[in-house]
Amino acid sequence: MTSATEQPVPAAPRLIATDLDGTLLRDDKTVSERTVAALAAAEEAGIEVFFVTGRPARWMDVVSDHVHGHGLAICANGAAVADLHDGGRLLKVRDLERAIALDVVHTLRAAAPGTAFAVELATGIHYEPAYPPFHLDPGATIAIAETLLHEAVAGAGAPVLKLLAHHGALAPDDFLALAHGVAGDRASFTRSSPTALLEVSGPGVSKASTLELCCAERGISSAEVVAFGDMPNDVEMLRWAGSSYAMGNAHPAALAAASGRTATNNEDGVALVIERIVAERTRAHAER
User: What is the pLDDT of residues 77-119, one digit of tens each?
Assistant: First the structure.
């Protein structure tokens, strides 16, 4: 792996795909002026920018003012594509079947007693009494997972974007490994929190697979994509992209998956690489 200043920038990238928390956003959840300028410069240079995040569309206000052109974002770890120019309206949904979600609930309860669950629907999040409360979602229904996943409750049959599983005692990576071992053949498991909080999506659903679909619709190949991330839920995307950068603050799995490394999120690591890409494109155009 090379650093952002050592790795040659890709010759002609057409799309930049970046995670948000721990990557584009600073720890205080702001976008720095330098990063705002870099995103605008990329779009002006003809490079599309996709935000690819575990966040639901309703939590995209932190970057909605910085979406140019198409206005699309991949949310909920690939379970949804949202139009941020239209209030976060969902354009594509790759849902988790409720029967599979219930099976995962029962399996994890047996394998890791004490696990508490939340259900992220296309209409909002709902959670069990033992699950850490979501202060940003005061309208959430609180009930056991079996009730929350019933078609007639909490969203009236709205698509399930992901299931969240929290354990108060297990180490985060140990919990993820356990889930892969007991239910990895039925759903996609990942994590992006520093706590033992798993994010469960439908089989084959990930940031990478939805990004690949969006790129195919635009005639963009993986070789023309530059990706940024910091946590296990970014690993597939970092591997898929032709060029990828793990943040200086990244989880070891993200560092191993990326082809390069940049500075931390608090040091504007994404902007640093984008600036080099735009400068290289400007230089190449000037030589023609």
Answer: 999 999 988 888 999 999 999 999 999 999 999 999 999 999 9
Query: C-alpha 54: how far from its chain's center?
Result: 4
Provide the whole-model pTM.
0.93
Closest Cα to residue 280, out of 3, 5, 2, 1? Answer: 5
Would you state the pLDDT for residue 6? 58
Contacts of 163 (CB under 8 A, 6+ apart): 96, 101, 104, 105, 117, 118, 119, 120, 145, 187, 199, 200
CA angle centred on 193, ends 96 and 4, rounded to 5°: 110
Residue 209's φ and ψ, nearest 5 degrees, are: -70, -35
Q: What residues contact 102, with CB distance under 8 A and at least 6 apart?
A: 145, 146, 149
Which parts of 134-243 fold into alpha helices (H)?
145-148, 172-183, 207-217, 235-240
